[in-house]
């Protein structure tokens, strides 16, 4: 068996291996250290079949993966926005540590603060330990930081293709729109990304690999070919539970920082008869991206790497599809923070489900541990491998999601506690209120629960990074999100 020292030497040190031939060395290397395939889906909430998030969900390929590994039903993003969520995953650092609360250019991540200056991205950590690394599509927020992968297949700018004129919604600072377009799957960037990754999996690799494939849908615009809309007949569409005065009992700051006028409101969609059309379009977009996931999974299963590759699928955060009067992310409520997470270890032979609260921040240390690499001491997430062995095991942890400096949500198995920068609060008991319609923060019966949840709030709240495209708090979303959300909404 190859030693740790020999592994770190990589292929350049083969002459020092001794009796092992190069072929024997590489074979032993690949057997000892598993490959990693990471599948990333943009703006995916729990509308997948395996999570029973919505009755119209049709996601046979994601469901197939869930049947082969561990499905985490209570997984949450570090931030309810693409840029800071992905920066957190790839650095292994929380937004409250780095000050990356808004979008940031990928090459500026290490310039964001003292805490990120010496960070090693997840892909770089694997390459540092002898892995070949490759990526395509949306992995970080834009492209990828220079040198963070050995090979990068690129990503298309923005989130097209776009029709000459929007079908339903034509407001500045957002890509939001819905309707069938274009005609064929091969006109979609995600289709190209899936096939690029499939080609990579068909290649001969002489050392373990870490690969990441980032898909754009179901990020807006909800444009996919007609056949995916046909999979979800409009007469069968069910809209989510909706309460018109849902925000009656939330603090003022909650209403202000989650007011995104560039996107439609649910009441507008109801009045215009578009609610079911939007649900259909989002569902169609999810089914389309599921087919792209299937292309990559098929390629892996037909490759020589099928039995020695860990597969991980995650969404970068959730998305409101009408709940709380919005079609958006960028909130601290359940719909915007919760997202699918599936981890399939190498040689996994069955499905299991964990309802324990976990964070996407936990991915970095978990993948490192699964692959037998030394821990990165700078990681702030938790190793999830104990839950891979025992999904119902002892897990006395909570998950924190951050949206702007000193605005946090704490999620446990039963409760969601939100504390805003001005000290105002929300508390939801999911056992009795799964829709988060009743804020019980002021109810004396929950006083002890609230005190316990407060202990999970971050003790460090970094100032906004000067490299962030959105800066400052002062109800930041009212001004900076309206002025600068653009294609990154």
UniProtKB/TrEMBL annotation:
Domain Sulfatase N-terminal, by residue range, is 34-372
Signal sequence, start to end: none
Carries keyword Nucleotidyltransferase? no
Matches recorded under CDD domains: iduronate-2-sulfatase
Ordered alphabetically, the record's keywords are: Calcium, Hydrolase, Metal-binding, Signal
Q: Which SUPFAM superfamilies match?
A: Alkaline phosphatase-like
One Pfam family this sequence matches: Sulfatase
**Record's GO cellular component terms:** cytoplasm
| Gene Ontology terms for molecular function | iduronate-2-sulfatase activity; metal ion binding
Required cofactor names: Ca(2+)
Q: Which InterPro entries match?
A: Alkaline_phosphatase_core_sf, IDS, Sulfatase_CS, Sulfatase_N, TAT_signal
Family from the record = Belongs to the sulfatase family.
Protein name per Swiss-Prot or TrEMBL? Sulfatase-like hydrolase/transferase
Native organism is Neiella litorisoli
